[in-house]
Design goal:
single chain, Elongation Factor Tu (Ef-tu), domain 3, elongated, disordered N terminus
């Protein structure tokens, strides 16, 4: 088992959530996932559907056919005592809200996993596990324009 300082950025443990600073949590319908440590990685992506066609001048015309909802990848370390709340989050089949550095909004959990123990938190005397989550924006917090010009094509629910 590795022993790492969870407060060290180089150790991969992330930074502890301190009031007024980096905050991360997911909540909704009685389920809350609020790990002690802020995730070490939050990646937000948005895919656009662009149509490219050659025009008569030798260049190309580009038209925007819309886009998909934002996908957010979140990963970091959690304490062993937080594994149950991660499990509850993974089992949630309803819209939730995520508050994270860089992006917040309504989401649906796509998938996630944890593995470990990967390190030991000497301050809390607890094993640390590596986790990752993939969530999908429901679109309710995307820029709203007439006729879905923003490209949001789904509310995240299976129809």
């Amino acid at each position: 088992m590795n022993y790492a300082n969870p407060y060290s950025l180089g150790g991969g443990g992330g930074r502890p959530a301190i009031s007024g600073q980096d905050t991360f949590f997911v909540y909704g319908s009685g389920v809350t996932f609020a790990p002690t440590y802020v995730p070490t990685r939050i990646s937000v992506s948005k895919e656009r559907n662009l149509n490219r066609e050659d025009n008569f001048c030798g260049t190309e015309d580009v038209s925007d056919l819309g886009s998909k909802n934002r996908e957010v990848h979140i990963s970091g370390l959690i304490r062993e005592s937080e594994l149950d709340s991660l499990g509850n989050l993974l089992d949630a089949n309803f819209p939730m809200r995520v508050i994270a550095p860089g992006w917040s909004g309504e989401i649906r959990v796509m998938d996630g996993e944890f593995e470990g123990p990967r390190a030991f938190d000497p301050q809390n005397r607890e094993p640390l596990y590596k986790y990752s989550l993939n969530v999908l924006s429901t679109g309710s917090d995307e820029a709203q324009k007439p006729d879905n010009e923003d490209g949001v094509i789904s509310d995240g629910h299976d129809h």
